[in-house]
């Protein structure tokens, strides 16, 4: 592994952390800045009413703005904390990488839902940004506060 490889991996980890903290705190500018201009974020392996797909920064930003405004009563949690654990980053070229990262979300009820991200990253200047994020859920609590949040935040 070269120094450049280590720096790339650390920059990707930084983007993962920035996305997580910005998303939990609804810091929309910071959240959207984690994505390439043409990025895609979509859910997979969830019930049909919770499938979503947003293409491009503008669509991702509009989605997050709906969350911030609480449109549809998104979830009612007083706090949300996504915890990232194991993350396998594979550098596929000088400007591209993929990653699989496990996560668990906690809310007022305790463990709320968990799954993993399948990401494609692209280098943009000095930053490594998410070009495509597939959000897969493995588990959710029976009383998950997010069960209705995703359908309620769709545009």
UniProtKB/TrEMBL annotation:
<dbReference type="Pfam" id="PF13577">
    <property type="entry name" value="SnoaL_4"/>
</dbReference>
<dbReference type="InterPro" id="IPR037401">
    <property type="entry name" value="SnoaL-like"/>
</dbReference>
<protein>
    <submittedName>
        <fullName>Nuclear transport factor 2 family protein</fullName>
    </submittedName>
</protein>
<feature type="domain" description="SnoaL-like">
    <location>
        <begin position="5"/>
        <end position="134"/>
    </location>
</feature>
<dbReference type="InterPro" id="IPR032710">
    <property type="entry name" value="NTF2-like_dom_sf"/>
</dbReference>
């Amino acid at each position: 592994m070269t120094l450049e490889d280590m720096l790339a991996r650390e920059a990707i980890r930084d983007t993962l952390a920035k996305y997580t903290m910005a998303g939990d705190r609804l810091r929309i500018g910071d959240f959207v800045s984690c994505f390439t201009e043409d990025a895609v974020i979509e859910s997979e392996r969830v019930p049909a009413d919770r499938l979503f797909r947003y293409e491009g920064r503008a669509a991702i930003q509009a989605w997050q703005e709906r969350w911030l405004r609480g449109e549809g009563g998104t979830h009612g949690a007083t706090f949300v904390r996504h915890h990232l654990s194991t993350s396998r980053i594979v550098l596929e070229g000088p400007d591209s990488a993929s990653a699989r990262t496990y996560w668990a979300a906690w809310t007022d009820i305790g463990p709320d839902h968990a799954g993993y991200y399948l990401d494609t990253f692209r280098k943009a200047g000095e930053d490594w940004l998410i070009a495509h994020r597939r959000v897969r859920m493995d588990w959710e609590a029976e009383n998950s506060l997010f069960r209705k949040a995703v359908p309620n935040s769709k545009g």
